[in-house]
Amino acid sequence: MDFAPIWDQIAHSISQAPRSGLLLAAVGAMLVGILGTLLIRRVYWLGRLLRLTSTLGLMGILVVVVLQMSRLDPRFELAIPQVGLPQQVVEGAETRVELGRDGHFWLRAEINGHPANFLVDTGATLTAVSTETAAAAGLEPRQAGLPVRMQTANGAVAADLTTIDELRFGNVAARGLDAIIAPGLGPTNVIGMNLLSRLQSWRVEGNTMILVPNNPQAPLEVR
Questions:
Q1: 195-207 tens-digit pLDDT
Q2: Helix and strand tally (H, E) in the chain?
Q3: Phi, psi (deg, nearest 5) at residue 195
Q4: Order of strands, edge to edge, in the sheet holding 201-205?
Q5: Strand (E) positions, the chain?
């Protein structure tokens, strides 16, 4: 049996550990628990205190992970802005997008005021922006975010979670939108289902995609 791929995966996971504050916090909580177990026979009260601290810390981290993962899946509505993440809102009236010559639906949008092209991909769970677009729009990796594994033409890579303050196109305005900063996308940016699922409706009629958000917004003209 070839164990090389397994060791490569373990090595990659270890190398990505510093990118996740939550993962480092979980490791720290476990070390505190181990220390408590070692001390419990010598200094009982201190050992019990350390073990209790470890348990409560791990429970808190688990709650944050569940809340973050719920934001990444449009089937769940457990995301709570009070945990430090902004509420995701999509507003606007009907926007029509014509099919491009390459067989895809493309949007000219503004991300945090920066113009950029987006591919509408109904097969993508999350909205994704390239590293170039993220830098131009001032997007920063979420400090306590979980690294997301994504598949590219060059293999699996780790991508950082971020928050888009405002993404606008046509009559649509999305605020506080979760996205990933995806290396290897080049100039391509992708609108995923975490935005589309928050519209009132979306459909394709012939060569036109029709996006119908919930509340009317003034049309946006992007140069």
A1: 998 888 899 988 8
A2: 5, 11
A3: -95, -50
A4: 95-98, 208-212, 201-205
A5: 89-92, 95-98, 106-111, 114-120, 127-130, 148-152, 155-169, 172-182, 190-191, 201-205, 208-212
3-state secondary structure of 55: helix
Identity of residue 109 = A
3-state DSSP call for residue 191?
Answer: strand
DSSP 116-166: EEEEE-TT-SSEEEEHHHHHHHT----TTPPPEEEEETTEEEEEEEEEEEE
Question: Which pair of tokens denotes residue 32?
Answer: 């505190």
pTM over 0.85: no
In Å, what is the CA distance from 116 to each residue of 127, 140, 169, 187? Answer: 13, 17, 10, 9
